[in-house]
Design brief:
heterotrimer, A alpha/beta (about 240), B alpha/beta (about 500), C alpha/beta (about 325), A: about 240 residues, alpha/beta, Aldehyde Dehydrogenase, Chain A, domain 1, three-stranded mixed β-sheet, about 20% strand, globular, C: about 325 residues, TIM Barrel, eight-stranded parallel β-sheet, 12 helices
């Protein structure tokens, strides 16, 4: 007699844990029950992501690189190249500027903060990793609205992250309806940047409310300059004198 | 033996202080036309509507300038597109550089003329337009001219190419300098531009067209369309503009970002600020006072990165404020064309009203106001340098950008508290830190959420130094290598 | 007498520092120099210019400090100080003449009845590198000869090696030895290295009882620059704000032109205010400056550019 397969309910990945949606809802995708996140879950996710910025950005670039590299190894080397950039970005993007006066002037890149990612529909895992990796390599935290139709890849990624050294709250993955979640992500005033899988006038307009940096991510590009979209450049001046 | 006319000896031996000369810079060097058109495709074209631009120090009309319509803007964009496709982008980069070097040299040679016109039309003291605006504007052209044929070094392995036609909208606080910040990198990268100067300060941009002519820049590479917000909107909305660069208020910046949503057009924004100038008790006090004064009274406080909030460590508050108030009594407010003037005119009646409204709010909210005795002229738009003490974080004058010569003073006890208050704003353009302790400078600089941190100095600018904001102060950087990026497309953009 | 036992002097105040004293503090070089440069760009009204030039004359300590000085040389200097421009008797006298101790008797003789003071350098000028007893004797002799004012030098060796108490104590002792003569303390700012040190030395000298603080001996090339002036004036201001004590300023060395003199006066005007624009609170230590000022005065009065030969060299 064959066993009746158990249908697992895949949950959200929030703050390093796997809670159900506060709304209690689920929906079906890829023949499984998937937690359907509500805007309150999104609100919580952003709060958690903001809370995690200090710890993640406070780690040394070297440390972050190591953590991400391990994650990449577990993901079969996807995203590895971004991990190698963590401790090199400042050297490519920053440096001393030769100003015309007795001042020492240097520019350094910093993470922008909390990045909202609206993941591509397909290819689900590759698309998500290629968007998440540059965000994390730059020292940002993320709130991801996973692919609505193909959420399992995101959830598998979450499971990898949960067992990695990426601190809880650095990545938060919400499964559910794109149309329900994305607008709240785009309009949230405590999200610093928005990574969209495709141009979307409504979401981009909502993002203007707090002058979010809007990035139209390309799933197929593996350039380290993808990271710079999620970085702020800070320039510091100091007089050189007695 | 020469005869020396008799002079009565001084009445008393006590000397009662100097009167400074009215030391006016002569206006004669500027030749103003009665009316200006729009500069499109290398030629002047009349606009159907026009308006008068004035001197804010005297309210004297200076010239009539065009109010560019949507059609005019369309013609300008078409000219820019034509110039882009007919050869500017294909021109050898070293040749492009030559045009930019010419422009830089011409700005240097005509610096006096431009400085006088800038002060006349905008209200800023001649000593600023002469010593800051003009030298920096020329320097920007020199700097970016040098990058024109070195883009492959600046962006190795990315195959940098121009974006196309850039629409650029600039503010009235540093009219020529903002023009240089916009045009120099855009052209160096191989783009063509349509630039709209601010409504109240069109004249140096229009004079710049003469430099463009003298430099023999191919027609259509630079187009200048004057006008008010409607002209700007037309430029933002035009479908054939590839990239918009805007410097101005956060409110308008957001409107532009909303307008461009879904269009795929590139955008950079340089918006407002409410910078904290933080003074610790071990700061070099007299120099900190200079930095505070420069931070908020330079250019009458019409500066996006102005140090408009003084956060002073409580243990040093009293002596610092005493010194500051005394220093304010030596600020000379008056004729922008007088070389002794430190603080000039407010740029417009509208801006003056905004300042007055917020200052009234400050008084109402319970902050204490101080203004040094100042004889302000009858005509023109003037506001005395002002300091508010006893300001709380929740007061409007601590939150809203006043964009005038008004300083709000708050106190703090510990570095953490200073940081918290400094970052507690939607803005993030700049910040100042004054302390003798090196490790503290770096600690603060690291944690301040601002695109520019001035430590033991303030209001320093340089073409090599990237400038721009965090958060609602905008995104994108101007200056340095990073200033070229918004005007280029790369391999990874899939272009 | 040591620092710890120093009494509160009528004109000074104790060390180590108490809360009521000005902060020692720090000075930022780049900002200070920029501020001085921007003050130097002020232009003053034509009418005020003549007054400023005449003030500069009245503030001048006309100086000769050479190994080769003789009574004859001093006689000529004194005559010049009393009547700088024989062709224009309305030009006022200088404040003082400044000489080495041996020349004080001749100087006193020559200025008698004119109102011009005699200032003597002392304390093993210019190096200050002699035992205290010798330096005090130097002062006592100069005072006995009739000097109205003493320009002393601080022990820079002691200062730079951190022996501030020694520097302080010596000033206190010299002030006593002055026996009522007015004391100027020369910091020799060109040797101090940093503006921080200039400020510290200024505060130290004022604490010890200086009536005036002075930049230099004039024997070193790096002398009275505008930023140094500004730094010292700020220290004077702080002392005045916090203790009410009035101390004067004397830049000396390197001020050769009338334009520089006026720049100095403008800086005093904007830092300490018009109250400090009097010979009682500000002096200019100079020799060749006087003729340039006289030329400018005559230019102002006649409208013609002048010829240096028309002004006496003494």
């Amino acid at each position: 007699m064959s066993r009746v397969p158990v249908k697992k309910t895949y949950k959200l990945y929030l703050g390093g844990a796997f809670p159900r949606s506060e709304s209690g809802r689920t929906y079906e995708a890829e023949e499984h029950n998937i937690a359907q996140a509500s805007r309150k879950d999104l609100r919580d996710a952003v709060r958690v992501a903001r809370g995690a910025t200090g710890k993640w950005a406070g780690m040394t670039a070297y440390n972050r690189g190591q953590v991400l590299y391990r994650v990449a190894e577990m993901m079969e080397a996807r995203g590895a190249e971004f991990a190698e950039w963590t401790d090199k970005l400042a050297q490519v993007l920053g440096g001393a500027n030769p100003v015309a006066g007795p001042y020492f002037n240097f520019t350094m890149p910093e993470p922008t903060g909390v990045v909202g990612i609206v993941a591509p529909g397909e290819p689900a895992l590759l698309g998500l990793v290629s968007r998440l990796a540059p965000v994390l390599a730059g020292g940002n935290t993320a709130v991801v609205v996973a692919s609505e139709t193909h959420p399992r890849a995101a959830i598998e990624l979450a499971e990898v992250l949960a067992t990695s050294d990426v601190p809880g709250g650095v990545v938060n993955i919400l499964t559910g309806r794109r149309d329900e979640l994305a607008p709240h992500l785009a309009s949230h005033l405590d999200v610093d940047a928005l990574d969209l899988d495709r141009g979307d006038a409504e979401l981009e307009r909502a993002a203007a409310e707090n002058v979010k940096r809007v990035v139209l991510g390309r799933g197929d590009v593996q350039s380290p300059y993808e990271i710079s979209s999620f970085l702020e450049l800070k320039t510091v001046w100091h007089p050189m004198g007695q | 033996m020469t005869e020396i006319p008799a002079h009565p000896p001084p009445a008393t031996l006590a000397f009662r202080g100097f009167e400074y000369a009215a030391a006016p810079e002569s206006r004669a060097i500027v030749r103003l036309d009665d009316a200006y058109g729009l500069y499109v495709g290398g030629a002047w074209r009349d606009a159907a509507e026009s308006y008068t631009t004035i001197s804010p120090a005297t309210e004297e009309p200076l010239a009539r300038v065009g109010q560019a319509s949507a059609e005019d803007v369309g013609a300008a964009v078409a000219a820019a597109r034509g110039a882009y496709e007919d050869g500017w982008s294909a021109l050898r980069p070293a040749e492009r550089a030559k045009y930019l070097f010419r422009i830089a040299r011409l700005l240097q040679e005509r610096a006096r003329e431009f400085a006088v016109l800038e002060s006349l039309n905008g209200g800023k003291p001649i000593k600023e337009s002469r010593d800051v605006d003009l030298p920096l504007a020329a320097a920007h052209f020199f700097y970016y001219a040098g990058w024109a044929d070195k883009l492959e070094y600046a962006f190795p392995n990315r195959r940098p190419r121009p974006v196309g036609v850039a629409g650029q909208i600039i503010p009235w606080n540093f009219p020529l300098l903002m023009l240089a910040w916009k045009i120099a990198p855009a052209l160096a990268a191989g783009n063509t531009v349509v630039l709209k100067p601010a409504e109240t300060t069109p004249l140096t941009a229009l004079l710049f067209c003469d430099v463009v002519r003298q430099a023999e820049l191919p027609p259509g590479v630079v187009n200048i369309v004057t006008g008010d917000g409607r002209t700007g909107a037309a430029l933002v909305e035009h479908p054939d503009v590839d990239k918009i660069a805007f410097t101005g208020s956060t409110e308008v910046g957001k409107a532009i970002q909303r307008e461009l949503a879904g269009t795929g057009k590139r955008l950079t924004l340089e918006l407002g600020g409410k910078a904290a100038n933080i003074v610790f008790d071990d700061a070099p006090l007299d120099q900190a006072v200079e930095g505070i004064v420069n931070g908020i009274y330079f250019n009458q406080g019409h500066v996006c990165c102005a140090g408009s909030r003084l956060l002073v460590q409580e243990s040093i508050q009293e002596p610092l404020i005493e010194k500051l108030k005394r220093r304010l009594t030596t600020l000379r407010v008056g004729d922008p064309l007088d070389k002794n003037t430190d603080v000039g005119a407010i740029n417009s009646a509208a801006q003056l009203r905004k300042i007055e409204e917020l200052v009234a709010a400050g008084e109402q909210e319970g902050a204490e106001i101080y203004q040094p005795p100042c004889r302000l002229p009858e005509q023109g738009y003037w506001f005395a340098p002002t300091v508010f003490t006893g300001v709380a974080q929740s007061h409007r004058i601590a939150q809203e950008e006043i964009f005038g010569p008004v300083l709000s003073v708050l106190s703090f006890r510990t570095p953490e508290e200073a940081l918290e208050k400094a970052n507690n704003t939607a803005y993030g353009l700049s910040a100042g830190v004054w302390t003798e302790k090196g490790s503290r400078i770096l600690w603060m600089a690291q944690r301040l959420r601002a695109g520019v941190v001035w430590a033991n100095t303030f209001n320093r600018f340089d073409p090599t130094s990237p400038f721009g904001g965090y958060k609602e102060s905008g995104f994108g950087r101007e200056g340095g290598l990073h200033g070229l990026e918004p005007y280029l497309r790369f391999d990874e953009d899939g272009a | 007498m040591t620092v710890s036992s120093a009494k509160v002097l009528p004109g000074g105040f104790e060390l180590p520092l108490e809360p009521r004293l000005p902060r020692i503090g720090a000075v930022d070089q780049v900002a200070l120099e920029e501020r001085a440069a921007s003050l130097a760009k002020r232009s003053i009204k034509k009418e005020s210019k003549l007054q400023a030039l005449e003030l500069a004359v009245r503030m001048m300590d006309l100086t000769t400090l050479e190994g080769s000085d003789t009574p004859g040389k001093v006689a000529a200097l004194a005559a010049k100080a009393i009547q700088p421009d024989p062709a224009d008797p309305s030009v006022p006298s200088c404040a003082a003449i400044c000489v080495y101790p041996n020349l004080v008797p001749a100087a006193v003789e020559r200025v008698r009845g004119s109102g011009v003071k005699v200032a003597s350098v002392a304390t093993a000028f210019p190096s200050g590198q002699s035992p205290l007893a010798v330096k005090l004797r130097d002062v006592e002799e100069a005072v006995a000869f009739g000097a109205d004012e003493i320009d002393m030098v601080i022990d820079r060796g002691a200062f730079l090696s951190g022996r501030y108490a020694k520097v302080y104590d010596e000033i206190v002792r010299v002030k006593e030895a002055c026996d009522g003569a007015h004391l100027k303390v020369i910091l020799e700012t060109g040797e101090l290295g940093t503006y921080d040190n200039v400020r510290r030395a200024s505060l130290l000298a004022m604490a010890a009882g200086a009536d005036f603080i002075k930049t230099s001996t004039g024997k070193l090339p790096k002398a009275a620059t505008l930023p140094v002036l500004l730094c010292m004036l700020e220290a004077i201001r702080d002392v005045h704000d916090e203790t009410g004590r009035v101390v004067g300023m004397k830049p000396a060395g390197g001020i050769r032109t009338a334009k520089q003199a006026i720049q100095n006066l403008v800086i005093v005007n904007e830092t300490l205010g018009p109250d400090w624009l009097t010979p009682d609170r500000f002096r200019l230590g100079a020799s060749s400056l006087l003729n340039d000022v006289l030329m400018q005065i005559r230019t102002q009065k006649t409208g013609r550019y002048q010829n240096p030969e028309y002004f006496t060299r003494d």
